[in-house]
Amino acid sequence: MEVKNTKGTENSAQEESDDSKRSKGIAKACLGVLLAVFVAFGDALTSIIMRLTKRRGIQDFQSIFWNQVAQILVVVVLVIIVRPKMTGPSWKHNLFLVVGGLLRVTGTVCVNLSALYALPGNTWAIVYGVSPILTACLSSWLNKERPSVVQLAGMLVCGAGVVTTAVSMNRKAADGQPFQQALTLVYPISACVLFSVSWVLLRWLSKQGIPLVTHMFYYSISGVLLLPLAYLMPGTPTWSLPPGMWGLLTVQTVAYATQYLSNAAAIHNETATTVQILKVLTVPFAFVLGFVILQLVPNTLEVCGGTVVVVGATAVGVWSWYANLKRLRVVAPAPSV
User: Fold this and answer.
1) Are the beta carbons of 101 and 219 closer than 8 angstroms?
2) Considering just the CA atoms, what is the radius of gyration of the chain in Å?
3) What is the DSSP letter of 235?
4) What is the CA 58 to chain-centroid distance, rounded?
5) Among 144, 158, 148, 154, which Cα is nearest to 326's?
6) Which of 104, 236, 276, 289 could anchor a disulfide with 198, C-beta 3.0 to 4.6 Å?
7) CA 223 to CA 197: how far, in whole Å?
8) At what angle do helices 178-207 and 120-142 cross, to 10 degrees?
9) Residue 143 near residue 203, CB atoms below 8 Å
10) Burial 196-225 (b: 16+ CB within 10 A, else e)
11) What is the pTM of this model?
């Protein structure tokens, strides 16, 4: 009887161990997907709050500068705690760290300025509508990560939603000044190109073994360049703010820093193409938050476009999760698509 009880206890312990490993595998498989969705929500929330702070007198580049300050502070704390190696194994890795950081900051300037001059949902429609295509092409060349059939289909579906939203944007901007109409296109398209290159470089650095905190540091420290721009651009920065404004600015900077850290972690755990496709969810998130916070009512085209984007991004997210489960051998392999 004692032998049987011992064997029963061992079998029970083994089953618990297997269940624990399975749960950890499922969580690890969906980590990159969930982080990308969180980034989409954070991007939308940040752009909405920036419009609120602009209404209350915060100068454009000053607002962007505060976002970068919050991000740098968080990253510096992580560097002190983790103490990673701050240089790559070769000059090429160090060059990519510096160039990637400069590209990301420049893209941040473009996309945040776009969010200040255009409706947030329309800004992200262009940025995240085109980014997946550029990212897939660059990632195939540099990282040898070719998009799957499901990813390509997801890009097409999300692209259809983005085109629908862009049509709405053009109709709303038809009565605006030509120069302002041009800015609503130039800023997000420039940001799209810059972001795509910087995130593909980040993915390449991750695959080369560069610690996550290291390239987060390089991608953040370039934000100090935005302070001089705050004084060069029209409008004098205001540093004396009422308590209520400081509270709103704190929420904005925390949302920005959190979504940035989540984005870096997402690309560290998932392919750059998948992350960029899922970040298209920023478009419907921006429309929902714009309605709740700013009382910006989306029209029929925007609602339809946002719905199509949700369908395409959800399909890619579920497929990526299942593909990761198969790779980690948490579920039995199934025929590939």
Assistant:
1) yes
2) 22
3) S
4) 24
5) 148
6) 104
7) 18
8) 40
9) yes
10) bbbbbbbbbbbeeebbbbbbbbbbbbbbee
11) 0.74
Query: CB-based burial of residue 232 (10 Å sphere; 0-12 exposed, 13-18 middle, 19+ buried)?
Result: exposed
Q: What percent of the chain has pLDDT over 90?
A: 1
Phi–psi pair at 270, nearest 5 degrees: -140, 160
CB 187 within 8 A of CB 111: yes
CB of 324 within 8 A of CB of 30? yes
Identity of the amino acid at 333: P
Spatial CA neighbour of 39 closest among 232, 208, 268: 268
**139-173: burial string, b at 16+ Cβ within 10 Å, e else:** beebbebebbebbbbbbebbbbbbebbbebbeebb
Q: Residues 6 or more apart from 10 whose CB is under 8 A from it?
A: none
Burial of 322 (0-12, 13-18, 19+ CB in 10 A): middle
The pLDDT value given to residue 242? 75
Which one has a higher pLDDT value, 19 or 3? 19
Identify whether the C-beta of residue 48 lies closer than 8 Å to the C-beta of residue 200.
no
CA 65 – CA 82 distance, rounded (Å): 26
Contact yes or no for 170/303 (Cβ under 8 A): no
Helix, strand or coil, per DSSP, at residue 54: helix
Q: Which of 41, 54, 91, 50 is nearest to 252 (CA)?
A: 50
Identity of residue 314: T
Residues 155/303, Cβ–Cβ less than 8 Å: no
CA dist., res. 271 & res. 263, Å (int):
12
Could you tell me the two tokens for 220? Answer: 């953040």
Residue type, position 6, single letter: T
Return the structure tokens found at 106.
């420049």
Give the type of residue at 166: A
The type of residue at 267 is I
Interval 34-67: pLDDT, tens: 888 998 898 888 888 888 887 777 766 677 777 8
